[in-house]
Task: structure prediction
Amino acid sequence: MRTESALKKNKTPRSSMPYRQAAHAGILFTVEDKQKHADVKEFIHQLEQDGKKVQVLEYLPEKKENYEFKFDFFTIKDINFWGVLQSAVAEKFIQTPFDYLFYIDLQPNPIMLNLLANSKANCRVGKFLDSQQPYLELMIEQNGTNKGLIETMYNYTKQLR
Result:
């Protein structure tokens, strides 16, 4: 219910801008394994080489390892009984008006969808799933790995003019 309400209340103007003009990118993902962590680090490096300022927020599920503690993160403990996120780091992230916000999960995570619904990002990019249509402006059809999703998102956004 909170997520549906956030979608309706969030009046952030959504649009994509030419990739070359974009200055600020966000990356949002759920921790899964060391390979996904490495793929995200490689993606950050690509974006930084293109002159983008990059911020990352990861959701750390229970019984998952936080590799390197390199990125800002939040856990289920940062969500209260009423489903309200109580993490200053996550709140700052969703209030940031990213030019592009990349959501790198192959399967939708309700907690992350709530963050996307509340996000002030101009263009939210992620994997195509019918259930994710209200949360994303650019949806990528990809049935492979996280690395494949990242590469496809990068290639498509680079082509935006």
Notes: The beta strands are 24-30, 53-59, 72-74, 100-103, 124-127, 138-140.
